[in-house]
């Protein structure tokens, strides 16, 4: 699938104010700084669409981007950023939870994890939470340019082992990506294209 148009639609902290068109949407979630906004820019071939930063905590709102006039990519704030205040954390948590639990046209969540790190408790908790609320999700390993291919495969195998040990029956659909060298771009876009066609 090719992206021919990508437009910013709205940012907000109130899931009720998200666009009300019943179009499929795909949300990017994961720890702060894992590369959610960068991945959206990589997929859409637009370096300036979603705001990125070397410092964690950049994305603070729910951001809708309309793609090819008929589906949405959604950039979300990261979780697990220690330096935001407790009240900010609680606010994020509230609207993110509300978004995942109430957003009817949420088609699939992409849970991003840094391929260099072993499975983190907070990510496993979030994955289990998505399982509990029955939101379909994929795992996206990010920053694959930082390690070699063999190491990347080893990281995925280790992740799989951890998930199986955490009561998952199988490794969910997953993608190895890099926003630097565009690894995984076609795979992620083809997946979205297939789901949209179903
Ligand atoms: P928050 O909005 O703070 O939650 O962060 P985020 O998950 O949106 O991360 P963002 O896309 O802003 O990227 C964080 C940092 O990681 C930036 O310095 C990016 O340049 C860098 N980065 C993101 N993806 C990649 C990648 O695939 N490879 C490399 N080498 N760096 C990356
Ligand atoms: Mg971001």
Can you walk me through this structure?
By secondary structure, the chain is an alpha/beta fold. It has a single domain (6-197), classed as 3-Layer(aba) Sandwich (Rossmann fold). It is built from 5 helices and 7 strands. Strand 5 (106-114), helix 3 (121-132) and strand 6 form a beta-alpha-beta unit. It is globular, with a radius of gyration of 16 Å. It binds guanosine-5'-triphosphate (GTP) and magnesium ion (MG). This is Probable GTP-binding protein EngB. Keywords: Cell cycle, Cell division, GTP-binding, Magnesium, Metal-binding, Nucleotide-binding, Septation.
Name of the level-1 CATH class: Alpha Beta
Task: List the ions, cofactors and other small molecules found in this model.
Answer: guanosine-5'-triphosphate, magnesium ion
Range of helix content? 25-40%
What fold name stands as the CATH topology?
A: Rossmann fold
* Largest pleated sheet: 7 strands, mixed
Question: Can you count the helices?
Answer: 5
Mean model confidence by pLDDT: 94
Structural class: alpha/beta
Q: Spatial order of the strands in the main sheet?
A: 1-3-4-2-5-6-7
**CATH architectural arrangement:** 3-Layer(aba) Sandwich
CATH superfamily: P-loop containing nucleotide triphosphate hydrolases
Keywords: Cell cycle, Cell division, GTP-binding, Magnesium, Metal-binding, Nucleotide-binding, Septation
Function: Necessary for normal cell division and for the maintenance of normal septation.
GO molecular function, one term: metal ion binding
Domain EngB-type G: 22-198
């Amino acid at each position: 699938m090719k992206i021919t148009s990508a437009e910013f639609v709205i940012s907000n902290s109130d899931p009720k104010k998200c666009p009300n068109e019943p179009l499929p949407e795909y949300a990017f979630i994961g720890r702060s700084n894992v590369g959610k906004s960068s991945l959206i820019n990589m997929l859409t071939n637009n370096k300036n669409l979603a705001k990125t930063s070397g410092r964690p905590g950049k994305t603070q709102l729910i951001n809708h981007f309309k793609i090819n006039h008929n589906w949405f990519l959604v950039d979300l704030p990261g979780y697990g950023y220690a330096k935001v205040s407790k009240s900010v954390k609680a606010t994020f948590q509230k609207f993110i939870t509300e978004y995942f639990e109430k957003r009817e046209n949420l088609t699939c969540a992409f849970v991003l994890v840094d391929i260099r790190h072993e499975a983190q408790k907070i990510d496993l908790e979030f994955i289990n939470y998505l399982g509990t609320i029955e939101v379909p999700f994929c795992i996206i390993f990010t920053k694959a340019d930082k390690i070699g291919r063999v190491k990347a495969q080893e990281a995925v195998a280790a992740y799989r082992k951890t998930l199986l040990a955490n009561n998952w029956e199988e490794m969910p659909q997953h993608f190895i990506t890099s926003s630097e060298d565009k690894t995984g771009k076609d795979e992620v876009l083809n997946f979205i294209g297939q789901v949209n066609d179903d």
